[in-house]
Amino acid sequence: MVFIHGGDFGIGSGSKSFYGAQYLISHGVIVVTLNYRLNAYGFLNLGIPDAPGNAGLKDIRAALRWLQDNIANFNGDPDNVTLFGQGSGGLAAIYMTMSDTTQGLFHRVISQSGTPFAPQSFDPRPLRTASQIAKSLGLISEDPDALLRLYSETPVDEVEEAIAKQMNARSVFLPSVEDIFDDEEAFLVDSPYNILTLGKEHKAFNPVPMIISVNTVEGLTSTLDYYTITSQMDRIKNEDFSALDQRSLVVPKKEREEFRKTLTETYFTNITSDEALVGGIINLNTDFSYVGPVSLFAEMYSNNSNVPIYQCIFSYIGNRNLGRLLTNSSLQATANRDELFYVFELERLPLPMDENDARIVTFMTMMWTNFAKYGSPTPDPTAGEWLPYPYNLEINLEPQYVAPLTPDRAYFWRHFYYKYGAEVPRE
């Protein structure tokens, strides 16, 4: 089982001080964690051979190739490799199914809170992104060679300081479509939307059985990005509703006012109190970054491949829900990262565990390792069966099938995505 850490492609580490694997190992699996290049150094795409993009995803591909050659020396099976990850790590695992250069390197995927089609998942205009950050470093240019010199010669801390000044600073540089160069093995040659739309007809599509999990109010942790949320609140209070624009949507200039008005009427009917503003931002981020994109991805992946996708909603609230602990939330809902430490031990800051927490740890690690070993989380259906899409399993003390999360809000997002999605082809 190969774990890919999250952090919106901007920060993070696979260190065992964050991801202690003892709960998984107790089920008789080998766990591998890895690091990969991040931020500008992992995802700068200037459309030239020296900066073609997706270096971080290519690092993961290189690690998987190394495992194919070497994991047998650690008593591992190169013919039974499961990728799993949380947030952008789960999305990176999904990206591995979208490249013809990764076929045969892995056999299953588990994505916890990671999905295509979200604002933090894909950059449709990477040269523009590089140029935007360059302005903070004193260069106004879209010339790839000038930008390459800037990013190559500027000290790392200065580049990171310029990125930190941006909205949603952790997810500035993202995966993007690459140009093809003779001496570079491209990773992503088309957008996730196009690849999934064509499914098995697309030469890059490389589907494997998958588990995808979400929490009930993922956007709760958007409050942790202090600079971004305070900036958004100030702008909304001053009726600057451009703060609601989504990177994954390209809205024509003449339609922007109507788009922003619709979002305002849906999420911000009350902007007189900070509490109402924060609640609106949380709900908007939950819907536009998780609920909507996950529902569309699961549908497209299931319909356009011949492999199962198992869906679950993590709703258990216990002592190890890191997202809730970080946000000090009193809402009876689970946040982004809440499921993570029922799979791992956070060695840097050990979290308490009572009897109910231990039951969830046992359940989740059993499902994850069963899936890795057998391709099904419930290989013996006589003891209860987790059925694939369109079923949704709620993970709690009494697991049960439940309706999808807020389907009306998922379709609200989908309306805009089909109309304005940056990846959706226009006639």
From TrEMBL:
Keywords: Glycoprotein
Protein name: Carboxyl/choline esterase CCE033a
Annotated transmembrane regions: none
Keyword presence, Secreted: no
Segments forming domain Carboxylesterase type B: 1-397
Pfam family, one: COesterase
SUPFAM superfamilies: alpha/beta-Hydrolases
